[in-house]
UniProtKB/TrEMBL annotation:
This is Beta-barrel assembly machine subunit BamF. It holds the Pfam family DUF3035. It comes from Sedimentitalea nanhaiensis.
Amino acid sequence: MRLALGLMILGIGVALGGCGKKPLHNLRTNSQGPDEFMVLPVKPLTAPRDYAVLPAPTPGGTNLVDQNPKADAVAALGGRPSALDANGVPSSDSALVATTSRYGVPSNTRAALAQADQEFLKRQGRLSGFKLFPVDRYSQIYKRESLEPFYVNERFRRSGFGTPTSPPANQ
């Protein structure tokens, strides 16, 4: 009898645990520990080809073994890292960047967006912290801010715009 009751409780627990489909939206941590993503590994040290023509040291400058993610990504994708300008933009894309920033680019875009999002979240979450069952708060809060992709795609197609193909809505 005890074994059957124990198996039944275990089965119910497993079944209820399988019902939870909680996506990974909340990436905040409660830990005050160190941030492991702030540590950047350096490239391996290599000996120079000729010790007589070493560059002069630049205090506060970059080092040959420092990570340069933009140049490394350009090289990994088959481009030339030497073709990047001071902002990390390839010379072939300079006209595109000039056109998109022709009305000016605010220097604090990320900070302004973060501040606006904090104010939005504060307005949305007054008494919503108390729930009987676990819910996806991210989807609830940003539901009005999201687009229905198939509806928007069909709307653009009906208005005559060329749109890329997309998978059917039922998949």
